[in-house]
Specification:
The structure holds 2 protein chains of 2 kinds.
Chain A: E1 11-12, E2 16-17, E3 45-46, H1 48-54, E4 62-65, H2 75-85, E5 91-95, H3 105-110, E6 114-119, H4 124-132, E7 140-142, H5 145-154, E8 161-166, E9 168-170, E10 175-176, H6 188-196, E11 199-204, E12 207-208, H7 211-214, E13 228-231, H8 238-241, H9 252-268, E14 276-279, H10 283-298, E15 303-310, H11 312-319, E16 323-331, H12 334-342, E17 346-348, H13 351-355, E18 369-372, E19 376-378, E20 383-384, H14 400-406, E21 409-413, E22 417-418, E23 421-422, E24 424-425, E25 440-443, E26 446-449, H15 454-462, H16 470-481, E27 493-498, E28 504-509
Parallel strand pairs in A: 3-13, 4-5, 4-8, 5-6, 6-7, 7-27, 8-11, 9-12, 11-13, 14-15, 14-18, 15-16, 16-17, 18-21, 19-24, 21-25
Antiparallel strand pairs in A: 1-2, 9-10, 19-20, 22-23, 25-26, 27-28
Helix pairs in contact in A: 5-6, 9-10, 11-12
Chain B: E1 2-5, H1 9-14, E2 22-26, H2 36-49, E3 56-60, H3 69-79, E4 83-86, H4 92-108, E5 117-122, H5 125-129, H6 131-136, E6 141-146, H7 148-155, H8 167-179, E7 183-186, H9 195-208, E8 212-213, H10 219-228, H11 232-248, E9 256-258, E10 261-263, H12 265-280
Parallel strand pairs in B: 1-2, 2-3, 3-4, 4-5, 5-6, 6-7, 7-8
Antiparallel strand pairs in B: 9-10
Helix pairs in contact in B: 2-3, 3-4, 9-10, 11-12
Classes of the chains: A alpha/beta, B alpha/beta.
Chain lengths: 511, 281
């Protein structure tokens, strides 16, 4: 990749010293993993306010949240409202991701309750305000899912209190996400938080007496890691929680891209007995699975596992016997939640097991094929998934940079243009995943193979699939769209994009 | 043959991605009366500006009795369109009207005379019964398309999935197309979500002698190509026949047998058609 070394300052106000992508990141002393012997009193039931006070939350500390409740999450706002009532200030919020429902954080950024945010994604009004109006004390730090697990483990992100929403918890703090009216599935992200946080508070709307008796096989997080259990009326809106792209797209352009992707994957030889696979929850990815299904059935191919965010679609393939196992860090939709609860081969995994770069056995390192989407891709195959071509923050890193780094073949699927704005550009607005980790781009206008993967290119051509250079594709698209003006960026860094190892791969400016 | 309403700018650059053999931009039924001029202007600019590479471009103009007929032809032919579908063809006179206009437009704009070709749209019982006269009236005619919706409306019957009510018209069109060596293009299958029904209909019309079909949705293009494509067995058989023909020089009087069956000229013609279709895949 052409990295942004030289354009990224060596020191960023509010962030500190910078190790640019490609440079060595200073070694840290590993964080102290919480020992189960640190268990607090057996009587863990508390109100939220009492739990926060007894956890001794102070100005300047770090609190964490997970995003398994997605856009249905009531917990983060409720916790921050309570913290605000207590007058505690200058907090760092580390959330595995932030959705539109979290726009309410804005007032707490404005009044100083929150001064730093670490997240995998940012959207909507909050993102807009951060870029346009708000004078942050510290830039937003975007971390990959694996990078966050690494940072918590290596001590660069120290969590004081982990607030963990659970759709079911018992009095001892044993938790799961597969039971109750607000069920959301895997608890992959907070598993890491509670293992290292100084205090953990479970928050549930489905309090039962003893999970070890009721659902002993479904405990995601042991009560040994939990200090307080808070019962609330609702942790979220089930309609918004159990969402997921469970329907195959009917958009003919998406279907065309998916079909081309499936053909290319098959031609590359990657879809073979025992292969492993990860796809996103977007419409194109789901359609790719559907097209691969036919090929797998016809050729009696069974994959070793599919991983990542698990959708109903992947569950369907699993139930048909086309994958032996599902490794689930995040669950999309009721069918996938039910499967996680009911099938032994559908296995919950932590973000550490999933994608921590310091964990050599992490699942992403075992992947043969992964599919990711992008808001932009440049001629060096660098991927942008956070900002649009207008420079506006609108997306997330998620686990894409982790999986792209680990997988043997990383395939980007995207339409060649969106509302007549080209997706293939000379330089992406923000580098999120380095082009060196990307092997192939599939658009409706052509398939491009990274020059480092001549082997894939040869396989595709041998199978009669046309491959064009990414420069040619970019030119073809620009013949139709013209060359859009670059956005006018300000001079203040509002966000830092960390690569999974903690180096800074890019920065985002105000607008 | 993929239909695209001519007033939708997005389709001009997305439609080629589906790799249809032909794109047919529609100025007729898909365009509201108050949008006819704007759609035609957009089409003219699109044709002049965009490179559709090896995809053939057709335009369904408004019919000869429409007030837009003349303006359509006078605009699109100088812009570069060389294939016109004439809808609601009912008589040889309809085709002659278009031919006379094309003669004048081509001459005025120094376009090779006769280079603009016509696909006649047969959409009424009168058109079906007059199809021989219609196609033989002018050398510009290269293809016949069948329009089932208007045909069944004229006949006063419901269009059914099985399509028994269309059998006579289709058979007539396919036979005349074969007789005059024209392309026979079947009507659209409107329920694009019903892929099974679509494939079934393709098989049916292929069996009647059609060699092309209009698509109303991009998702139909690949299914159409797959279903129209000759089977592996047919290709192998055709290959064997043509190899044997080459060796025996059958067309110069030689006689051969392949797999115990005599091979004569019609069999060779069929084998060549199969190989031509194979080449297009």
């Amino acid at each position: 990749m052409t990295n942004r070394q030289g354009s990224i300052p060596k020191y960023i106000e509010g962030y500190g010293k910078v190790a640019c992508y490609g440079e060595a990141v200073p070694k840290r002393t590993m964080a102290h993993k919480r020992s189960v012997t640190e268990k607090q009193s057996k009587d863990k039931i508390s109100t939220l306010k009492e739990a926060i006070c007894q956890s001794n939350l102070q100005d300047g500390m770090t609190v964490s949240f997970h995003h398994h409740l997605r856009n249905g999450d009531y917990v983060m706002k409720r916790v921050l409202d309570t913290i605000h009532e207590l007058g505690i200030k200058d907090l760092t919020v580390s959330a595995s991701s932030i959705s539109k429902i979290h726009d309410s954080l804005l007032e707490y950024l404005q009044d100083g309750t929150i001064t730093r945010i670490y997240t995998a994604g940012l959207r909507s009004q909050l993102a807009h305000e951060v870029q346009h109006h708000f004078n942050l004390k510290a830039p937003i730090v975007f971390m990959t899912h694996g990078g966050r697990a690494r940072a918590i483990e290596d001590g660069s992100l120290n969590i004081d209190i982990a607030f963990v929403a659970a759709s079911c918890s018992d009095y001892h703090g044993n938790m799961c996400g597969t039971r109750g009216p607000s069920a959301f599935g895997s608890m992959g992200y907070p598993m890491v938080d509670v293992a290292y946080a100084k205090r953990s508070i479970a928050i549930t709307d489905n309090l039962i007496e003893d999970m070890t008796e009721a659902y002993p096989d479904e405990i995601s997080i042991s009560g040994d890691y939990v200090d307080y259990v808070v019962e609330v009326e609702r942790i979220g809106d089930p309609e918004q929680i159990a969402t997921g792209s469970t329907r195959i797209t009917s958009n003919p352009m998406d279907l065309l891209i998916a079909r081309k992707t499936a053909h290319a994957l098959i031609a590359s030889g990657a879809i073979r007995q025992g292969f492993s696979f990860q796809a996103g929850s977007g419409g194109i990815s789901l359609a790719v699975c559907k097209f691969l299904e036919n090929h797998m059935k016809q050729n009696q191919i069974v994959g070793a596992f599919a991983s990542g965010g698990v959708t109903g679609n992947l569950v369907e393939l699993f139930e048909k016997g086309l994958f032996e196992k599902l490794y689930d860090v995040q669950t999309f939709g009721q069918d996938a939640i039910d499967s996680l609860r009911d099938h032994a081969g559908h296995i919950e995994m932590s973000a550490d097991t999933y994608a921590n770069p310091n964990n050599p056995k992490c699942v992403v390192n075992q992947l043969d094929v992964m599919i990711l989407s992008a808001t932009e891709i440049d001629v060096d195959f660098n991927i942008n998934s956070i900002t649009g071509s207008n420079g506006v923050i609108m997306g997330a890193l998620g686990g894409a940079p982790d999986t792209a780094a680990g997988a043997k073949m990383a395939v980007v699927v995207a339409p060649s243009m969106r509302t007549r704005i080209p997706i293939v550009v000379d330089k992406v607005t923000t580098i999120c995943t380095p082009g060196t980790d990307i092997d192939m781009l599939v658009t409706e206008r052509g398939i491009c193979v990274n020059p480092k993967r001549e082997d894939i290119k040869r396989s595709l051509i041998d199978a009669g699939i046309e491959v064009i250079s990414i420069h040619e594709l970019k030119d073809n698209i620009q013949k139709l769209t013209g060359v859009p003006d670059k956005p006018t960026l300000g001079d203040k860094i509002v966000a830092v994009v960390e690569y999974r190892d903690g180096s800074v791969i890019d920065v985002i400016y105000n607008l | 043959m993929l239909f695209c309403p001519a007033n939708n700018p997005k389709l001009y650059y997305t439609a080629p991605s589906y790799k249809p053999d032909c794109i047919i931009f529609d100025l007729e039924d898909a365009i509201e009366v108050n949008e006819k001029d704007a759609a035609r202007d957009l089409l003219v600019e699109g044709i002049k500006t965009l490179d559709f590479k090896d995809i053939e471009i057709f335009v369904r103009i408004n019919g000869v009795t429409s007030p837009f007929f003349k303006a359509d032809v006078e605009a699109i032919v100088p812009a570069g369109v060389r294939n016109i579908r004439l809808p609601m063809c009912q008589s040889a006179e309809d085709v002659q009207t278009l031919c006379r206009l094309l003669d004048a437009v081509e001459e005025e704009h120094h376009i090779e005379l006769g280079s603009t070709k016509i696909q006649v749209g047969i959409e009424t019982p009168k058109g079906v019964l007059g199809v021989r006269e219609i196609v033989s009236t002018c050398e510009r005619v290269i293809a016949i398309s069948f329009g089932a919706e208007d045909y069944t409306a004229s006949l006063g019957v419901e269009r059914t999935i099985k399509g028994d009510e269309l059998l006579f018209a289709r058979s007539m069109i396919a036979n005349v197309a074969s007789m005059y060596d024209l392309v026979a293009t079947d009507t659209v299958w409107s329920d694009f979500r019903d892929e099974e029904g679509f494939v079934e209909e393709i098989r049916r019309v292929k069996g009647l002698g059609f060699n092309s079909k209009s698509c109303i949705h991009p998702s139909q293009v690949e299914l159409l190509h797959k279903t129209f494509a000759p089977s592996k067995e047919d290709v192998e058989k055709a290959q064997k026949i043509l190899e044997a023909v080459e060796q025996a020089q059958v067309e110069k009087g030689g006689v051969i047998a392949v797999n115990g069956k005599m091979v004569d000229v019609p069999v060779i013609t069929k084998a060549r058609k199969i190989m031509a279709l194979r080449q297009k895949e």
